[in-house]
């Protein structure tokens, strides 16, 4: 791209050295710099990208975007800006040509349900013959190939690049999870959403946001950033059963569609029944009511499906066809996903790692529990992250007959510190603290009897555990099946 054209995106700048005419690429990581590329130095939580500038020059960078003048060896221009983080958003969107304007862009925010709602939307869109790309916790899904990503919402450069790739592959739509970190850290700069969806707001991430109020206000950025251009066909979808929705409604002038179970809503579900491994409900819509049966389990998935339906209806998709697709939806990976085994117990893998999600996951399983059987619930939580939610998580888990307290990704924290914090919230004595997750999974199988239900929560789709800063292979399902074969055969 012509540098002059690229740099017109940043009005406040000071240039040192001779600018190259063109750059071939932009990078925020010195290890990814290409010859004739630009390198943007970002001050991170761990290191300062400015310290890697010389490495970037050695790798061929001809343009650096910096916050202060650097003494470097080599032929490189420096562009000094007040904030490289802000420049990253502006430059990335310009470099990739504002690709989000050319796709149907749907963003989903909320404490729980982002992966589920985006997965549901993606599957319905594909079922309706639309080509959809998907980005979130599970990675970047383009044409059925899954590319790993470090974050639920990736940095501004990767975000623009993913949308550009989706556009180049002629996708009609891109569905994205929008995390509060992503909003707070400007990772979504320049993403022009057509539909913004809110799932719910409950306790999580207070290590980062400090208070629920700050956390809730950050989520609001998604709605405020839809803008004021009312010629655009933009829509907002809000959960009528969550008090934060009233606040988000005020942040946007665009049409608001509501969904819910317990309040008046444009998309309202009633008569929910959980039978035969399926969920059945009646969905009232602006165009009459539909009886829906689906394989997704639990009330929380009724909310998720209502949210997805409202979003697609707002963009003129046929309700009849949407409902047909809902009836065929596969489970979302690692979200109340049944593990199919020959064992005389039912095993579910789930990603619940907030108090609210734990309550919802347990409620989803309770209708399937026999009178004399047990619900065994295994929960962990991540080390070196929000500790304040731990006792509440265990209190919610106490609805289960037997609870196993363990770790998700312990990182640098002692097992006993994590399980000890969880144990403070337990409301009964039927529990065990086992920090080693593999051992904890084996313990669940060991105490299970025929007819019992086990939910392994917290790791969901993940196939690893992070201990210190290393990822070790780990699968709750594989460990459980192996142990079950030994025990029940
Ligand atoms: C706290 C946080 O958000 N950290 C994010 C941040 O990492 P960081 O600040 O530590 O980066 P750093 O290592 O200091 O590097 C600073 C700069 O130097 C550069 N660098 C670094 C090393 C080098 O050799 N060369 C080089 O150029 C880096 O590329 C970077 O530009 O920037 C990284 C790159 O964008 C992110 O992957 C990383 O997310 C980490 C993995 C993370 O765990 N983040 C969590 C808190 C998070 O963001 N979670 C949300 C919510 C998920 C949910 O809802 O549950 C998410 O959206 O994922
Ligand atoms: N709408 C919902 N309301 C409450 N809980 C939900 C909802 N949808 C899913 N859950 C529960 O939360 C867990 C996480 O769901 P999901 O991955 O869809 O949320 P998320 O917002 O993407 O979470 P994260 O950002 O941590 O990845 C699920 O395994 C389930 O237990």
From TrEMBL:
Carboxylation is probably crucial for Mg(2+) binding and, consequently, for the gamma-phosphate positioning of ATP. Keywords: ATP-binding, Cell cycle, Cell division, Cell shape, Cell wall biogenesis/degradation, Cytoplasm, Ligase, Magnesium, Nucleotide-binding, Peptidoglycan synthesis. Residues 334-460 form the Mur ligase C-terminal domain. The modification N6-carboxylysine is found at residue 219. Its cofactor is Mg(2+). It is an enzyme of class 6 (ligase). One of its GO terms (molecular function) is tetrahydrofolylpolyglutamate synthase activity. One of its GO terms (biological process) is cell wall organization. ATP binds at residues 110-116. InterPro entries: Folylpolyglutamate_synth_CS (IPR018109), Mur-like_cat_sf (IPR036565), Mur_ligase_C (IPR004101), Mur_ligase_C_dom_sf (IPR036615), Mur_ligase_cen (IPR013221), Mur_ligase_N (IPR000713), MurE/MurF_N (IPR035911), UDP-N-AcMur-Glu-dNH2Pim_ligase (IPR005761). Residues 24-77 form the Mur ligase N-terminal catalytic domain. GO terms for cellular component: cytoplasm. Transmembrane segments: none annotated. Catalyzes the addition of an amino acid to the nucleotide precursor UDP-N-acetylmuramoyl-L-alanyl-D-glutamate (UMAG) in the biosynthesis of bacterial cell-wall peptidoglycan. This is UDP-N-acetylmuramyl-tripeptide synthetase.
């Amino acid at each position: 791209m012509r540098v002059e054209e690229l740099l017109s995106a940043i009005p406040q700048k000071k240039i040192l050295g001779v600018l190259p005419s063109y750059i071939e690429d932009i990078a925020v990581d010195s290890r990814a710099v290409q010859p004739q590329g630009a390198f943007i130095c970002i001050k991170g939580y761990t290191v300062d990208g400015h310290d890697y500038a010389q490495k970037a020059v050695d790798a061929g960078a001809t343009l650096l975007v910096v916050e202060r003048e650097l003494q470097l060896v080599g032929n490189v221009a420096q562009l000094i800006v007040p904030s490289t983080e802000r420049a990253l958003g502006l430059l990335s969107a310009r470099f990739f040509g504002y690709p989000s304007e050319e796709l149907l862009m749907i963003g989903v925010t909320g404490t729980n349900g982002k992966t589920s709602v985006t997965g549901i939307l993606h599957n319905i869109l594909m079922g309706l013959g639309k080509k959809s790309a998907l980005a979130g916790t599970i990675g970047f899904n383009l044409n059925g190939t899954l590319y790993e990503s470090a974050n639920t919402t990736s940095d501004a450069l990767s975000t623009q690049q993913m949308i550009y790739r989706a556009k180049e592959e002629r996708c009609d739509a891109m569905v994205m999870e929008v995390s509060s970190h992503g909003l707070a850290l400007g990772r979504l700069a320049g993403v022009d959403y057509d539909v913004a969806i809110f799932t719910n707001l409950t306790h999580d991430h207070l290590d980062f946001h400090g208070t629920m109020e700050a956390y809730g206000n950050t989520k609001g950025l998604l709605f405020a950033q839809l803008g004021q251009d009312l010629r655009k066909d933009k829509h907002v979808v809000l959960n009528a059963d969550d008090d934060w929705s009233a606040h988000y409604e005020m942040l946007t002038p665009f049409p608001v569609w509501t969904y819910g179970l317990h309040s008046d809503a444009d998309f309202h579900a009633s008569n929910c029944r959980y039978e035969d491994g399926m969920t059945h409900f009646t969905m009232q819509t602006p165009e009459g009511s539909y009886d829906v049966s689906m394989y997704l389990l639990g009330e929380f998935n009724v909310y998720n499906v209502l949210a997805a339906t409202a979003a697609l209806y707002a963009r003129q998709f046929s309700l009849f066809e949407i409902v047909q697709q809902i009836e065929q939806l596969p489970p979302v990976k690692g979200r109340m996903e049944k593990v199919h085994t020959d064992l005389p117990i039912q095993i579910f893998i789930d990603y619940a790692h907030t108090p609210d999600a734990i309550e919802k996951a347990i409620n989803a399983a309770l209708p399937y529990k026999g009178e004399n059987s047990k619900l065994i619930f295994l929960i962990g939580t991540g080390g070196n992250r929000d500790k304040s939610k731990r006792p509440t998580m265990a209190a919610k888990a106490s609805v289960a007959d037997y609870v196993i307290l363990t770790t998700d990704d312990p990182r640098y924290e002692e097992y006993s510190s994590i399980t000890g914090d969880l144990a403070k919230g337990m409301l009964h004595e039927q529990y065990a603290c086992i920090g080693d997750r593999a051992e904890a999974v084996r313990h669940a199988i060991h105490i299970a009897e025929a007819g019992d239900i086990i939910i392994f929560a917290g790791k969901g789709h993940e196939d690893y555990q992070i201990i210190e800063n290393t990822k070790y292979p780990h699968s709750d399902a594989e460990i459980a099946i192996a142990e079950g074969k030994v025990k029940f055969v």
